[in-house]
Amino acid sequence: MNGVSKISVSDDIALVTFNRIGADLKFISAVFGDFAEQGINIDMISQSAPTGDRVDISFTISGDDLVKVLALVNKYKADYPDVKPLVSNGNSKVQLFGEEMREMEGVAGKAIAAAAAADAHVLMITTSEVDISLLLSAYNLDQTISLLEQQFGITAER
Q1: Least buried of 17, 119, 124, 140, by fewest C-beta within 10 Å?
Q2: pLDDT digits (tens, 9 = 90+) for 98-129
Q3: Is the domain of 86 the same as that of 141?
Q4: Do 39 and 67 share a domain, yes or no?
Q5: Which one Pfam family would you cite for this protein (predicted)?
Q6: Is residue 157 included in any domain, yes or no?
């Protein structure tokens, strides 16, 4: 019993970040609506704690949608000059799943320790009661996956 029953890897994932946007979420709700209209699926959403009236928000998309996203990002830059979007592509999402996580402490710590031992470049972490998702750059990706497999005693699905 180690908390993780499945490790899956998804490649060609892009990270989109909007720094210092209004904490009222009007802008990001418009962004999410625009993405939905373009058929772009958003995953791994993470928002920072507010600093004054500003937040940072990051999320992932499939690299297949990158051209559509870049067109939207250019529109936002023109319409909202204060908004500074960042886009990083060619990343991988490593997802650890396990129903046991709900009742087990330390699973995230073990996953992060394995990534640290591989000197992974972790771009974002999101969690739920039964899932830990790590967005990783290509740097030391295979070593990170190998150490996660060793840590949790299962083979990753790619």
Answers
A1: 119
A2: 999 999 999 999 999 999 999 999 999 999 99
A3: no
A4: yes
A5: ACT_9
A6: no
